[in-house]
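During the second year of the project, the team shifted from modelling isolated chains to modelling whole assemblies. The rationale, set out in the original proposal, was that interfaces cannot be judged from single-chain predictions alone. As a representative example for this report, we include one of the complexes processed in the last quarter. Its constituent sequences, exactly as entered into the pipeline, are reproduced here:
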Amino acid sequence: MTTHPETSTPTVGTPRHAATAEPAEGNVLRRLNQRRRDAQAAVRQRWQGLPKWQRVIAVLAFVVFLYYLPWLGYLPGGAPPRNPVANIQIPPFHLLRTDLGAGGSPWAAVLFTCALYVMVAIGLNVVIGLAGLLDLGYIGFFAVGAYSVAIFGSVDSPVVQALQERFGLSQNWAVGWALCIPIAIVLTSVSGVILGWPTLRLRGDYLAIVTLGFGEIIRIAARNLNGQSGPNITNGPRGISAIPGPEGPPSPDNQIFGLVDAKPWYWLALTLVILMVLGVRRLEHSRVGRSWLAIREDEDAAAVMGVHGFKFKLWAFAIGAVLGGTSGFLFASRYAYIDPNQFDLQLSILFVAMVVIGGSGNMVGVSVGAILLVYLPERFRDLDEWRMLYFGLAMVLIMILRPQGLIPSRRRARELADRAEEVSGGRHRRAEEATINA
Amino acid sequence: MNTLIDHIGQYTVDGVSKGAIYALVALGYTLVYGVLRLINFAHSEVFMVGTFAILVTYTVLDVQQYPALVVAIPTALLGLVVAGLASGGIALAVERAAYLPLRRKNAPPLIFLITAIGVSMILVEVFGLLLPRRIGHLLPEVFGRERAASLSVPYLFERRPVLTIGDTTIDTIHVIVVVAAVVMMIGLDLFINRTRYGRGVRAVAQDPQTAALMGVNQDRVIMLIFVLGGVMAGAAALLWTIRIGNTQSAIGFVVGLKAFTAAVLGGIGNLRGALLGGILLGVVEVYAAAITASIWEDVFAFVILVIVLMFRPTGLLGESLGRARA
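Output from the structure prediction step:
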């Protein structure tokens, strides 16, 4: 994107010192912002000054808190609906829950969805935030992950039924849940490479539309591979049910991972999130991660320095695909039923919004973005039909007021500040020319 | 496959009239991209607003299905004006309210994208919920029963065969849609290439800094391209209601996606590319629908796009609005 300095702004022709001095009306905001920045820096310094064991304890305490979240506002084990009267409420935290009013979503289910989308956001952050590739069709990988457990693990799947018939297996036979994991990893990474191979040579905007098309193709394929307009693989719009979880196919006998109680699912998702965060952190600071940053900032310069752009971009796609596929896998296992309409493009765009609003490039940021985009519409269900309107408004406002995202990566924020500087720098230059002409 | 070969003429005619609408919407993407190098994803909603403007106007005027030609032509022209005003106005409002603050900060394209998605959401929600309800309140006898987001636009023109060659029939709708689209396109092409304002647009597309030094008001150029794109989307909205006859608040997404694909296919930022890409996409879709009983048509569209981009990464006619004389 080339830079386009503003020409019509009134700064043109004003004296030189006026452009550098702060405008008076922005003073209060600016001072507040400066104070916030100072406070942030102080907290960061304080944190880094702590001995290592204290920092470790703090992080562990936070992790324990995350595992406690399903009972938020109550003592562990006592949240509604189990025993609503005898519960001891801990105000004001219980107000954060989504299941207070009638018709609210179960809190643990919302938490699970949050954790699931955090997984998606972390995976997509590898592609968008680290490697700088705009992938609008991330839902495709999510769907591939979901369908790999559905197609191989469910007795309802046409593929499993065909295998049963072919090899004379019993009606209850299906590939085990744990065995589906490597299958899903292989399938998603292959789909990442298949998408990336022809398209990664394209730049920016073209990549965006092609990935968007890919997401749509996966959905249409899932819809059409129903035995009438193609081989029967996905059951088409009817969807696949009886998708297994860690305890095997869904049944009332399941002790832990049942359909009703979402708490174990949340804990499972949370554990996966933590593993992912650790893994991606290592990756970010490795040779691969540094190559991604170099490609993101200037692909040509990176190539001159010997970074093989295409190879690393393909890596980013494949790794992002596997992470997205894992989330899809978990999604299918949790709900035990999927159909093609759950993977529409609007959801894909929502994924991108999570990353950008949170602050692309920063894992904490994208997680916050994901949580907000899931949590806010759930919490404010009372607003009913209006909530999506407010949601859109909030999105626009955040982007206008804070284009770097809510919690940006520091490097990314600096890049954005640089870009803004380029514009005002241009203004200064023109202001000088104007004074010379006068 | 056989049905396609037997009736290839008919399918081509259908595809061209479908693609003409895509091409008109694609112009909005291409104009903005050519000058600002950004994808205006909210443009699909600009189109949607146009269809709603027509819906409201016709409902208020109580236009009947298939009116006499004396009534139908002025009504269509009125629809064009109303839709053009509404779409152009909305496009301009989006630019001023959402994009201008971002351009001041020189934000990267991704930020514009997310903002555009937010804007789309707002527009879809406003038109999905608020409008039918509000108007239902004002004009209960007209809108009362239809509380849902989808109301129907009356058909203005009947499908009558105009010309038959073999078993290919060109009917009135085909003629109206294609002729109207081509006239709008030629008008825009002349505007960009022959007028003073058009020269300004091309100058900014080529080199914004130098254009500014030569006294082109860049801000005005940007407003102009948003309005022009909006007006073209309004025209597309009219043709859509003539051809399909109905609208709903979520209509924009699919049309916008197709139009954007068309713009990229022809070379985004290139006006004639939008025409070529739109018509090509329309024809490919209709062919694919004929072969696969219409369920794989979107897949074909995207596969063609990928193949074209692999061999011509800037689209069929190349990118530039400034250089390629539009």
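Residues 254 and 292 of chain B are 20 Å apart (CA to CA). Chain B touches chain A through 58 residues (CB under 8 Å).
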